[in-house]
Specification:
This protein has 70 residues and is mainly alpha-helical. The chain is built from four helices and no strands.
């Protein structure tokens, strides 16, 4: 419903704030459901670096999307 659309919009906004390689890695990993090796091959990095990109991007997304404590 409405809440899902709202969250999807918020996620799209947050993804757009990431560095392009991090955004690409997250999209490939979770939208296209690629392995880290496949993500790495697509963006031209090692599998371990692709995993670090995704991990760091998820932390950043969590930070962006969580309401700030007052």
């Amino acid at each position: 419903g409405y809440k899902v659309c709202e969250l999807r919009d918020e996620l799209e906004h947050a993804l757009a704030l990431l560095d392009p390689p991090a955004e690409a890695a997250v999209r490939l990993r979770y939208e296209e459901e690629l392995s880290y090796g496949e993500v790495a091959a697509r963006i031209g990095v090692s599998a371990s670096y692709a995993a670090k990109l995704v991990s760091g991007a998820l932390l950043e997304l969590r930070s962006i999307m969580q309401p700030q404590a007052a």
